[in-house]
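Components:
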Amino acid sequence: MYRYDEFDHTFVTQRVAQFREQVARRIAGELTEDEFKPLRLMNGLYLQLHAYMLRVAIPYGTLSSRQLRQLGYIARRYDRGYGHFTTRQNIQFNWPTLKDVPDILADLAAVEMHAIQTSGNCIRNTTADATAGVAADEVADSRIYCEIIRQWSTLHPEFSFLPRKFKIAVTGSGRDRAVTAAHDIGLRLKLDADGNPGFEVLVGGGQGRTPILAVTIREFLPERHLLSYLEAILRVYNQLGRRDNIYKARIKILVRETGRDEFARLVEEEWAHIRDGELRLPDGEIERIQAYFAPPAYQALDDACPELAVQRAGNRAFDAWVGSNVEAHKRPGYAVVTISLKPHGGIPGDASAEQMEAVADLADRYGFGEIRVTYKQNLLLPDIRKGDLFALWQGLVAAGLATANAHRVTDIIACPGLDYCNLANARAIPVAQAISERFADPERERAIGNVTVNISGCINACAHHHVANIGILGVDKKGKEFYQVTLGGAADENAAIGDIVGPAFDEDRIADAVETVVDVYLAERRGADEPFIDTYRRIGLKPFKEKLYAAH
Amino acid sequence: MPNTAITANRLADGFVIYLTADGGWSESLADAAVATSDDELEGLQAVAERAARAGTVIAPYAFDVETDAGRPLPRGRREILRTLGPSVRTDLGYQAARS
Ligand code: SF4
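Structure:
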């Protein structure tokens, strides 16, 4: 697995020492909040509704068991015994005191973690495919490219003060598991005719008040040109992106206003100057980084696992969990396991210190000590032997982590919303809880099948509600919470932005509204194999709208 | 003018605090000074700005309150939650100690 190198270590340690001094000066009254704020944000420290919040980066969502245990330790020692995993594959601690933050950062640095570049108008943590390296269908391991991007973008002098924050996503196959179309730059790995890896390059995706899907500006970019091409895109953006209006500063606006073809031309023109310069990845560089991600010591196993079939037949709850939370692995005899952080009626993405430790122990015992954080605010164990699934599941049951709902209607993405977030207009978590309770019956949930439900507490859209099959946006009307519903969004390779159904629902009616939407789908679908999104694309908004507003 | 109080976050832990009539800060909105005129509000704002410059409080702002026999009560979900803590974790925030 990736280990950050000497440079990173020295740098992060120095940065902690620097911040410790800055905090001391702030507490002593030598720095004003105006002076201190940019410094704390650079170190991941925000001020939220009830307290400070520390956002810790998890590069491409990969954690060792040691790191996860340390996060559990931090949650217990300095916070209130839990952490919140976000769609950006970060973890947030909601209650740190100012004086403790330098110690927390030092404890993070001890396990090669930090909170740098989780804020500010720089290139943020790259969103990775959580199943990188293990997905049965992947073209190449996307973590290698995420790491190359991370090394290039960390403290890149030219790109520390971009017009706005900048997010890149990489997915390892034609199946998009990193929402590339909703990022400033999306990279989709593919092979050329000779079997060489490269990328389809998308630019200009984004959410917020102006949701736009990224457009492809290059069908195939050979891997050795990755950095020079990214640099060319960033240069064009840095030069032409608007700095006068925060709502128009993202690259999506530039791409839309310039037009795809013209933007692509500008990038190609810039690229022509630098493509064979120092950013060209030298031979051996990709292999060098690949070595960090060398596959673990897999055993040679039969893919068929008769004992698993027996265990499934003998235990319905286990069978249901395997059905929803276990996916194919590229190695025979292994499986990829999603650990749901969405207990029915619970808080999406929250994990207690004990749960973090339990997962770390299970990862050591049954995996290779590796854990991934997914875009859906869940955890994932990438390498579990099929023969160990039953024992693993029992361990998860004991830790309260065996909810069988991955990709289902209760696998809801929700941002912290007005329960924690200073920018929020409405609460998101209680809505998620109400919907989750509504669909808690496992049989019913299974019958409904895969559908995405995302809830954001304001138009910043941290929960990506625009690209959810069922999207919910909290709005404030005179101090009261209302919820606007969109349908038909998608975050996969057929990305789409949802359509607004009509007037918003108040907090007492939003779960009913979602239930109505699901009922229309169940009544209209052509058999159990037609997922929600396909039915929606076939029948459109109208039947849903009619039912939702029938009584009015 | 609607009745108004001043709130901020405390430097040490970011917790919600309210400006009191004696120029101090309290964790409880019930203790907050309520301005009923522009002049009173300006006076309170000046005190709050000084505290912010001195570094003890962060991001002070004025907000409308209801009053019940002179006691301020929060209006709107955001300010209600700020007096309590997260509605989904009633074991945390001010509500935990008060319940
Ligand atoms: S969407 Fe809005 S409310 Fe939710 S976390 Fe983002 S900024 Fe906060």
